[in-house]
Amino acid sequence: MIRQVTITPHMCGGSSSIFAQLGDWTWEAVAADCGTNVYDARTADGHPAYLSFYYFHVRGSAERHPHGLTFGDELTVSSRVFDFGGESVLTLHRLSTSDDEIDPVEFYENPRPDGIYVQNFNRWISRSRPDSNEELVRSAPPDFRHEHLPQLPPQYSPRGIASQARKNGTFHPSGVPGHTLAETFDTTYELDVVHDFNGVGLVYFASYFSIIDTALLRLWRRMGRDDRQFLARRVLDHKLGYFGNADLDSRLRIAIRLWRDDSGGGAEVADVAVREIESGRLLAVAAISLLVEEA
């Protein structure tokens, strides 16, 4: 699928808007390729089924990165959907000025410097209890067609990366090679009914980006950095694993370890874990590679 896109105000800036738009493009691609109405999918028992985000990976460059987009940028979005069985699906996107089809080898091994690359690994889920966002269960709609989709080469599968991050509570259990731990920071966050929930009452997938950025900004300010520097940061790589959802009254604890590149140059990695305070459940894990402007 190829789209010609002009970046509009709702798709850019310091918020999670661009990630929300990327997720919408994933749903559109899956709906087109799999013959399923992802917006009103149902299980075999007639209960709502949701194409949830399990692993979200965005790769940029110093030349083009997610928070560097602005009004009027004209880009081509190339999208491909891959078979991952009857309960999951993987989608790749490339945002660039090229209008050819995205290739997995390019995505994983030879990215173009003017491209933003996106990998979405989605799983079908449904509620196990109608009044709770906990204990969501896998449940695909019976009309979900996937056998005709291309197979992703197994060396590129995100299953292992995501499962290890869930097991370890981090993408970097042994630290970040070539980096030194510079800061640790814990903060709390109360889910916002106005901003953080989608139209079916689940914590919106894009809200996790803004929740994590809110915590990162608090650390930023504690370090004496200003907000303009935060807006100017370049996100070169952002991995986010979604491992749970939460109810309306939930409070979260967000732990950040900030790793600084030993060679200097403003490169840092934020290693983030999000847990529900009351239960201790791990809800999300992120690893964000940044380039920071000097003050």
TrEMBL record:
Protein name from the UniProt record: Biosynthesis cluster domain-containing protein
Secretion signal, residue range per the UniProt entry: none
Gene3D superfamilies named among the record's database cross-references: Hotdog Thioesterase (3.10.129.10)
Lineage: Bacteria, Bacillati, Actinomycetota, Actinomycetes, Pseudonocardiales
UniProt xrefs under InterPro entries: HotDog_dom_sf, LnmK-like_bifun_acyl/decarbox, LnmK_N_HDF
Segments forming domain LnmK N-terminal: 3-173
